[in-house]
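for the writeup, i need someone to sanity check this before i put it in the appendix. the sequnce is what the collaborator sent (i think, or maybe the updated version? ugh). structure was predicted straight from it, no edits. if anything looks off just tell me and ill rerun, i have time this weekend
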Amino acid sequence: MMTWKRPQILRTSPALIVVCLLAFSAQAKYSGGSGTLTDPYQIRTAADLIAIGETPEDHDKHFILTADIDLASEARATAAVPEFQGRFDGRGHAIRNLKITGAGNLGLFGKLADEARVKGLRLLNVTITGSGDNVAGLAGESNEYCVISNCCSSGSVKGRNHVGGLVGDSASSVLDCNSTGTVNGQENVGGLLGSNDRIVLRCYSDSSVKGLRYVGGLAGSNLGVLGNCYSSGSVDGQETTGGLVGFNDGVVGGCYSRGKVTAAHDAGGLIGDKGQDGYAEHCFWDRETSRQDTSAGGTGKTTAQMKDMKTYCDLNSPNPDPNACWDFMDETKYGTSEIWQMPTGGGYPVLSIFADYRPQLQGKGTAPDPYLVGTAAELGAMCYDPLSSYKLTADVNLAGITWAAPVVAEYWGTLDGNGYSIRSLKISRGCGVYVGLFGALMPLAVVKDVNLVNVDLHGLEQMSFPSLGGPGGLGGLAGWNWGQIVRCRVSGVIRGAFDTGGLVGLNVGTLFNCSSTANVSGKVNGYGAVGGLVGYNLCNVVACQSSGQITGEYTGTNDRQLAVGGLVGYNERGSVVHCCTTATVMSSGSGRPHAGGLVGSNFMGNIVNCHSGGEVGGTGCLGGIAGSNVLASISNCYSITMPLAGDPVGGLVGRSQWIGEMAQMLAPMLAMLGFDERACISNSIWDKERTGILWSDGGTGMTTAAMTDIKTYLAIGWDFVDERANGTSEVWRMPSL
């Protein structure tokens, strides 16, 4: 008798069906993709876009727009995506007719946070109406370290406070963006941004703007940097109203405005009013069209002058206006980024990026296939895509070019110098909070194997910008480093007036195996630091060295501290390890200068396995290794630094303080552990015979014979090559005779 047997596949089919359905559901969430960098989710329809907002677990994923989307039938009361931390690439496509009527935090994105990236997106004919704060076309609010690039918005935006055509309250980097239409609000109202706390580059607004206070054609208020921007729309406010910016307490450089400005109080053609730190450099406004003869910054010109290229870029005059230093197409005297151009039929300058200019570089800008840079023009093009990877293919000669700002204001990518050199970089009166080849190297940025030869940097006078993390910085490679710098070199002359260093002004990242032979000087009228390699260090400086003339002068009248060091000016909570210097260090002026052969002032930081052998002198607390060492440690270091004319020099440290009265209580225990009771100074010595210095506020003086005998160092626990008792890291070696 035959019996029927169910096929095996039918017994397992329910589970298979469930698995298949789940897989299909995951793939069908949008129009394709898996949300990764290499396979982003594809957004093709209005339903796809709305689904992003309804799926919070995807707000940190990668997305691309694959078609234009019309939202005319999708009126909303909240942002399409309440908060976004991922990557959204519009790829030049448009989202049309976004309509929102609600309270606050309104826009396509309510808030951009946690290093979100939005680029290549066009928002057309938006209608955003909010009764609350943070209202805009693209994002109501954007946080620090977000980047918005190559985006635009047109239409109508209305809100209360922090209202902008593109972003309401911006603490992000906004690059190559624009807005048109109408913007209405009460306070902090701007054509592009309601308020700016970060950096805005190569942007414009043609919006008509109305508000009550802090009203501007581009930004209602600016506490950051506006560079190479313009506004052309009318601006109507009651007080603190400007053609470009209503209230400025940051830096505005290389900008202009031409719209009509109306206000009862504090009306300005370019800037309505400014705070203590507000600064405008190389800026203009049209006195005739604005109907304003005054401004809290910038230079007023006639309409005819505003349409004359010589106003902005004077190439032939023997004594050109120092403000006429804009980087224009087809000239190289003031840069090679081709930022501006004059319209063919005449008129006001326009930004080249919005006039069909596209830099052409070989490569794809990825880590495996970086953009290739071998000429001055290709180096200048890096500013248009600061998130990509680049590689030098030849030495780049910048002789004859004078930049008015960093070549790349903020950089987030990777630059492989490939051992090549960038020669004769010159930045004069550098406009910006952070000045160098790179204004700032941002988190995750990496620069390696770059040689900067014969740099000539001259920054602006002392400024302070609390919203940007401090007083600013100037360095040959970067004004501010939050990334990694490896095997980079610098030579030349660097002159600053805030935190100034040969390679980096302010370091909160890592420097490894770098060096500077630059002559570095700084004139400071507040707190500031000058260092041969780094001005102000808050992180790691490892296996680095410096030489050159390092000078710091305090020009203020208050009792403020200036720190000058052969390698690092001020080391706060940072680590200086395996470093050396032969720099000549001088401090001068009133106040409380601290100057050291290696580090000017070491505050709650660590100096380990270092030595100094240059010269130090001047006024204040002077020391062979550190001018002062407060709540900090110095271990396994030596100094043969020679004293120069001026106040007495401590052989190792000029002034040490650990924890005040508690140090006295712990003195016996510290002595047993090999620490100096006056500070955490251990196993560190100086040559009292060669230098003639017989005292130090910490450390031990030795004869020259002892300093040249390996037994001296082995006895205090130093790790040398070919010995194992003190460790196997092979930190030190004695030179061959």
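The chain has nine helices and 86 strands. Residues 1-27, 462-470 have pLDDT under 50 and may be disordered.
thx in advance!!
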